[in-house]
Amino acid sequence: MPARLTGALIALSLAVVPVSVARGVAPFPQRATAFANRPAIAVGVAWYPEQWPESRWDADLMMMRATGFNTVRIGEFAWSRMEPEEGRFDLAWLDRAIAAAQRHGMMVVLGTPTAAPPAWMTQQYPDVLRVDEDGTPAVHGARRHFSFSSQRYRSFSRRIAAEMARRYGHHPAVVGWQIDNEIGPPSFDGEAVAAWHRFLEKRYGTIGELNCRWATEYWSQRYNNFDQIPLRPTGQQNPALQLEFKHFTTATWTDFIQNQARAVRPLIDPRAFVTTNTMFWNAGFDHYRLHHDLDLAAWDNYIPDGRPDWVANGANHDLVRGYKQRNFWLMETQPGRVDWVPVNRALDPGQVREIAWQAVAHGADAVLYWQWRPAANGQETYHGAVLGQDGKPNPIQPEIARTATELSGAAALLSDTSPVARVAMLFSYDSRWAIDLQRHHRDFDPVRAFTDFYRPLRTKAQGVAILPVEADLSAFPLAVAPNLNVLTQAQAAGLARYVRGGGHLVLGPRSGMKDDSNALWPQRQPGPLTELLGARVEQYYALDKKVALAGSIGGGATIWAEALAPVAGNVRVLSTYRDPGGWLDGKPAIVTRKVGRGSVTYVGAWLDAATMASLADRLLSDAQVSALIPDGDADLEIAERSGGGKRLLIVINHGGMSHPFTPPAGAVPASGDWRGGAIPAHGVALFNLAPGARP
Ligand code: GLA
What we know:
- This protein is an alpha/beta fold.
- It has 19 helices and 27 strands.
- Strands 11, 12, 13, 14, 15, 16, 17, 18, 19, 20 and 21 form an 11-stranded mixed sheet that branches. A 9-stranded parallel sheet has the order 5-4-3-2-1-9-8-7-6. Strands 10-22-23-27-25 form a 5-stranded antiparallel sheet, covered by helices on one side.
- Helix 2 (54-66) packs parallel to helix 4, helix 11 (310-324) packs across helix 16 (446-461) and helix 12 (351-361) runs parallel beside helix 13 (397-409).
- The longest helix has 26 residues, at 239-264.
- The N and C termini lie far apart (56 Å).
- Mean pLDDT is 95; it is low at 1-25.
- The structure holds alpha-D-galactopyranose.
- Residues 181-182, 300, 302, 332, 338, 370, 380, 383 line the site of alpha-D-galactopyranose.
- Keywords: Glycosidase, Hydrolase, Metal-binding, Signal, Zinc.
- Residues 421-625 form the Beta-galactosidase trimerisation domain.
- Residues 1-22 form the signal peptide.
């Protein structure tokens, strides 16, 4: 077997993520918790009791109940309080805080405090500190100043997590566990370097294999052994090394989280979930992989500039739902504003409620605000909160209270339901990273490229599932992969099976160019799918101005254009460049080929918005995917959640003006603002649809 192929097989076995459930119990239900006697929708807030006198706790919890909250998240960041000195645990205050929450009828999510190691540890054991790429160790005083590779830190983390789990694992108020908080920054310390070498050795087996797959004859990069390979994923390093660094950070963070999950699980009620809270498109690691052994995904949805782009935010939620293809927790969202961008504008009145319902429409079974009350000092005194520094409600509180009450009121309806989508979009971390590492056009932002494809598909189909490339696509007539730059043989084979089984597959520009070591496939794009497509990319061009497109999909290409070359007889050209005097003139830009009842389409250009919209119309009609509500208004988000014999229609007016809305025949208003045939600005309406019948 040629070395290159052996490498490919090793890489495949490491890279393919089976999409299944790892816990030893039944799959997590489509409701907030697996406790049947607990609310199906969690609404709550991050509460830091350690920051306040105990004499205040009851008042706070009473006010939380009055706000309609049923959940508090406690514990994250409180390490110096829980273990004030090495090995001396003081959890009595936490016992009392959890007991107080329970007295007030709250569900509790416990966070392990490992995002904020205490001073005694960093002073006594400076080797636990994170080291920047330039070799500078982190300084105590902020957070996330630990190394994700440090075995000593792992052992301290395991100990505090187990201590908490022993104590609260079967506490009747505790419904879930959040490991750490927003993991992300990697470390470049000596242990990380050694782990990197071990990681590469395990992945490639021999240094010869690595040299071959990384093509290290280029620039005399050939390595004699794994220990020579720098942990330096930036600058002019080999893009193979840079992509492997992402695989390494994925493996290291996954193991970092599992280190605690393994300590906690045997000690807790099996119905309690174990998760971590993440940051949607964060590029640090592969989120599908990280979530594989967690019970559910949880994320922190912020609109930093206070100007929601509802379609893009919908994509954020759909991405998170795709991590496990299951409903998720919105672990944090803003009570008005954040404090970490240059201009921290507050959302308009009504928008906090609007974005909470949007999360639910996309599959959230929990909405938790960050935070209850600002600490008296620290980095976040300017952040939005439910209460002000005087302990009295901020002006946003009544809107949050209304949202919380409505969500709880709709819990019975929402329980056991999940979002409905007939269009799948495939997002691959490897592809995103590979493009980002070598954009070739500065504006080729792979997340923006993805969102540009998502936008018309979401608004026209009113439901999109974002999935890993290996997912089972059989329920989706249409699967769109905007930029599948890294495409393995196994993935290509899976996609070809989907098409042969009647699926309509659409590939966007730059697809099928690289293998999962970021090396060029020996054939032109779309590489392993060229034969199925019956066409290939002749050449690609970065554009500094728009190029016109003519044909059944006319319009314009921007940023990126590929000249396509059909090779099979039955390939149809849908669009051709008009580029007089240029390389692209007369060349096909979009081609499609029928394969049995299915089809494969290749879109070789980054299309402008109008062209993308006409393409979406055509793709949806070819795949016979119709809108739930035809001719939807641009400001109105339409979504369906169904399951357990229920079908719910959720309509959200993201605009600043009232919009007329006619519900489908048979729809029964269940809650919200629909009055007199219209939904007011930032309004929300929930309808019961007759099960089974599509309106
Ligand atoms: C993140 C963190 C929180 C808090 C918020 C502020 O989401 O998880 O601890 O810092 O940001 O927006």
